[in-house]
Design brief:
There is one protein chain. With 108 residues, the protein is an alpha+beta fold. Helix content is 27%, strand content 44%. Strand 4 and strand 5 form a beta hairpin. Helix 1 runs antiparallel to helix 2. The longest helix has 12 residues.
Length: 108
């Protein structure tokens, strides 16, 4: 059973998942620090290129199965038009101002 986005514990992660699922690029970018970074399957990626390719142009969607680390780590079903559906893990670094400075994702 998935966790509804509104019930995710961490406000920044909740907003991130909501923005991904709504296809809301502006909201997602507003959640990130100016120097935010990310990694996919253990390799650092260009954040702007990755979110365009893996989320927005391919209609990415997250269905969260579980959370840990006070809501800053997720296991989720992720799907997009390029790769289909896969089980993924997500980890977020959230700064004191509530913005995300890093996220890491990969297959779970």
């Amino acid at each position: 059973m998935t966790i509804h986005t509104d019930r995710l514990s961490d406000p920044a992660v909740r907003a991130f998942v909501g923005a991904v699922n709504a296809g809301d690029r502006a909201s997602l970018l507003g959640l990130l620090t100016p120097d935010a970074t990310m990694a996919d399957d253990g390799s650092d990626r260009d954040l702007a290129d990755w979110i365009d390719r893996e989320i927005f142009s391919s209609h990415g969607h997250l269905d969260v199965d579980s959370e840990s680390r006070d809501g800053r780590s997720l296991v989720a079903g992720y799907r997009n038009d390029t790769w289909g559906e896969m089980r993924t893990k997500w980890s977020f670094t959230v700064e004191d101002d509530g913005r995300i400075s890093r996220f890491e994702t990969g297959q779970a």
